[in-house]
Amino acid sequence: MTGREFALLRKVNPLRPITLLSAASARIRGTRVPSRYRPCAGLSVPIVTVLDRAGRVIADDQRAVVRYAIQDGAGANIIFAAGTTGEWNRLDPQRMQTVSRIAVEECRRASRGGVPVEAWVGITAESSAETLENLDHAIAIGADAVVVAPLSITDADDPVEFVERAIGGAFERHGRSIPVFLYDNADIAAPGKAPHLHTRDVKRLSQLPYVFGIKVTASKVVLGNYTRAAAHFKRRGEFAIYPGNAYLIFELFRPARGVAGRARNYWNRYLTRNFLPHGVVAGAANVMPREWQRSWQVCVDHELALMERYGAIVEQFPEACEFSRGGKPARLTIACLKAALKELGVCTSDAVAPGTPALDAAERREFLRRFRTLRRNAAAMLEPEWSSATEAAVPPRPHAHADVGK
Length: 406
Prior knowledge:
By secondary structure, this protein is of the alpha/beta class. It has one domain (about 35-390): Aldolase class I (TIM Barrel, Alpha-Beta Barrel). Helix content is about 40%, strand content about 10%. The protein is built from 14 helices and 10 strands. The chain has helices spanning about 25-30, 60-70, 95-110, 130-140, 160-175, 200-205, 220-230, 250, 260-270, 290-300, 305-315, 315-320, 335-345, 360-380, and strands at about 40-45, 80, 120, 145-150, 180-185, 210-215, 240-245, 280, 320-325, 330. The strands form 2 sheets. The protein has an 8-stranded parallel beta sheet. A two-stranded antiparallel ribbon has the order 9-10. α4 packs across α5. The longest helix is centred in the C-terminal third of the chain and has 21 residues, at about 360-380. The chain is globular and about 55 Å long.
């Protein structure tokens, strides 16, 4: 950046360090931004992508999966399309855009019917050009927000510069912006990139008027560092943290009971800088959307007895996805999610994209045995009204492929 670009100073609280913004950021502040947008709280379901054996998106089934996740208002608050659970890193932009469009259309239909659900779409691609192409598409289809993992874009050397200049420049061209949520996950960082965003980068990105939060798959310490960084420039609730390790909510919200409980609660609050998540991103909610919605509710309400009951059930799903391959543990989560949805009759195909580990025949049989046991346990232990209903999904019809080219 030039000296002139850095000449514009942000007005800040005198107790906070003065931060310099580029001229690009100043211009972006003049574009139309979402008025009074507040990050959506609650359950975010990173929706799977339903493919046939040729790798084509099955449009009817994709719609059914989204509707099943929404559960007529008893499931997802947010549908997150084209994320890691949606196999974004295995799909070309055309198929990513197809599943994004379907998610937006279904969420819009639900909202018109009195069930407000936000549609967030992943825009991350291997290259900067493809990522910006996905962003243009998200704006065109009216997505409620976009999610980007800067460290996964191979040719984006500086995550701050990419979000500020490249994404901000796109907003400037469109004359408006939509909310942006960052995505931080060491498992999908591009080769040679840091596993997590630096705290100083999150601090800088949180200043941008269109950045409203971050989805983090990391430890409590990392979550706490990001919260502290954003607190310099956003009031509580304006920059939201969504843990990608959904099972953390049972620990973070656990009420302090007894000496040991108070000690554990104090330590959690210390590690997380006294933050509590704004929502939770639960991949297993593809299969158990009502159960996860209720899990979120009882955690927020600190209902310990119900927290223990729901935690005991939902934590069985990742265990059901664990197998041994070559003497090493292998968690086949995406393949298991799709197998479960097919078992429930929500979709007609459990095919995974090339590169995603698939279940072999023996593993599929064993997983389905475990899944049926899990469902029996849930029926016995949980409130019956919070059992996910397959009736919420549109019945699968014969394969009708979106026009996705391949």
